[in-house]
Structures are given as structure tokens and as C-alpha cells.
Amino acid sequence: MSLILSIESSCDDSSLALTDIDSAKVIHHKKISQEREHSRYGGVVPELASRLHAVALPRLLREISDRYDDISLVAVTSEPGLSVTLNEGLMMARTFALFKGVPLISVHHLKGHVYSLFIEKESFFPLLVLLVSGGHTMILKVTGADDMEILASSMDDSVGESYDKVAKMMGLGYPGGPIVERLAREGDPDRFDLPVPLRNSPLVSFSFSGLKNAVRLTVESLGGAENMSEKDMMDLSASFQKSVIAHLIQKSKKILSRTDIGDFAIVGGASANMAIRGAFSDLCSRYGIRMHDVPLQYCSDNAAMIGRYALDIVREKRLPEVGDIDITVSGNKKVKSGEKL
Ligand code: KG4
Ligand code: ZN
Predict the structure, then answer these.
(1) Whether CATH 3.90.190.20 fits 3-119+298-315
(2) Pocket, ligand 1, Cβ cutoff 6 A
(3) Which of 104, 112, 123, 178 could form a disulfide with 97 if both were Cys (CB 3.0 to 4.6 A apart)?
(4) What pLDDT does 335 receive?
């Protein structure tokens, strides 16, 4: 057997996977999440995250020690993300690859999210991808493994980040996405009149900071989180989610209405949100576009998507020489429309 060992540590998940090069099957995938440790801070604390990775990653690696001989390639997330946590994965990957004498591929985290669509499946192009994660919100035109053009992106916060901040304002835990989605399910989306960002602007971009501020003002008008009832929280979550979806749909429509690409996908941590998925599935069927999404276990950060990206690099015969390590760590640099990932 010839396996790809893939490692992901760009934020608060330590994850490791083994992908069989011949069958494309993920034969091992494990993730140690740090959500509980960061929850009391209402967000990820980078230094704490890097220390937790330093403990978790070697543990994950030791668990697959009986497969070391089968590993013929190492793939690791190199950017974007938190530099201190990326470094933990990079160090372990580089050491393992050099010691074993196998090539090392550095993988762009957002390209990994796109490739989460293709885990245990064939890749296909072209397609439009809405990426909604904790760090990014953008629409990409994807025509190949290294051909991903940004058609629209957020000018400030991301979708996942705004869910996290709304949960924090209401005194709830981290990550906020699943909590706010659960509350929204029971709430009245018309109780609070929150703005739909950039509604009257011709810009094909996203923005969530104004909406987030409107939520903050609403929390204050209700006397602060400590004075909000569960019903208030449900209604505010539902009203917030309604504006998020209206905004995502309004801007995506501008792209979908004039494309000749017949496939659209939604990826990233926030793509686990059933209300967002449902709205996009309706939109796509209106335009006769096929909609694709990712199995829930692979929406949030995971190493299987990094392995899947590396698999296409193997198939395209673009492997680096052993010891030839091309690693750039750009941190969370802002990316703009018109640029490539
Ligand atoms: O892709 P991901 O695991 O990490 C990044 O690359 O950022 O995304 C994590 C983000 C968090 O902000 C989390 O709150 C959000 O995804 N998220 C959700 C849901 N589940 C996770 N946002 C909205 N609704 C959800 N159900
Ligand atoms: Zn991610």
C-alpha cells in the first residue's frame, strides 16, 4: 500500500489522515478538537492552540505507527491560518518526511476546503464554490487544483466569525455557529428588523460587521445578555441568520445569474448550516445549476481534505524532490476579488 499522510493544524483542530493513493480511500482520519479549551474565551487563543497542537499532533502520529512503512508522501497545511499553530503541523510534517526520505507537499488550507468536495470521489472542473469558514467568506471560480480565482470576498468578518461573535454577545459558547443555528430553528426570524448588508450596493462583496453591530445594539436594547430570555435569544438568532442568508443569496445570485458554469458547491465550517444549505439548494435549482455539498464530518477543518488535494498533485505528477520543501506561511493575509488563491 502507498499512503499519503496528511496533517492539518491551521486553527483549533489537530487532525491527521491516511489516504490510499491507488484507491483514493481515506483509510484513517482522526481529529482532536480544542473547542472545549477555547470555549471559555469565546474564541481561539493562538498561544493556547499551539501548545495543545504540540501535545495532540505527536499523539495522533503515534497512533498510526504500524503504517509508517506504507507512507510515501506527506502533505501539510502551510497557509493561511494562525502562524503559531501552522508551525506545529509543519515541524512535525517536515521532520517525518525528512526522516522517512519521502516528499513533502505544502497545501493551501482554502484549496483543501475546496477539495473536501472530492474526498473519495473524482475531482471535476469547472465549478463555482462558496467558501464559508471561520476565517474566510468568498466565491471562487475553480478550474483546477491550482487555478482558483476569487470572484467575491468579505471586506471584513467571515460568516463563521460573525456567528461566533453573535454567540459571544449572548454569553453562549464557542464555536457559535452550531449554537446560533440551533436557537434560530426555534425562533421568529421577523421579530428583529436587522439590516441585510450591502443590500442597495452594486458591489459583489460580502460584509458582516454592520450586521454584527446591529445585533450588538439589539442585545443592549434588551438589557444585555444577562437579561435576555431564551425566547429573545432564539428570535435574535433567527433574525440574524435570516439577514446572513439574504446577504449571501443576494450577492451569489449576481454571479450565478450570469455564469455558464453548471456546478456550484458550498464548503467550509459554516456550510454545515442546514438553513444556508437549503437556501442555496433552492437558488441553484432556480438557475438549473447542480448543487454540491460536503459530508458534515468534512465541512470543518480536517486532514482528509489536505490528503485529497495532495492526491491530485500526485496524479498530475507534480511531486517535489525529497528534501525540497516549499513552504510559505502567510498567516491570515487578506485576499481580494480578482486574485488567485
Ligand atoms: O472551516 P472551519 O472549521 O475553520 C476555518 O477554516 O475557519 O470553520 C469554523 C467556523 C466557526 O466559525 C464555526 O462557528 C462555523 O464554522 N460553523 C458554523 C456552523 N458550524 C460551524 N456556522 C454556522 N452554522 C453552523 N452550523
Ligand atoms: Zn478551515
Answers:
(1) no
(2) 11, 133-135, 160-161, 163-164, 175-178, 181, 268-270, 272-273, 300-301
(3) 104
(4) 66
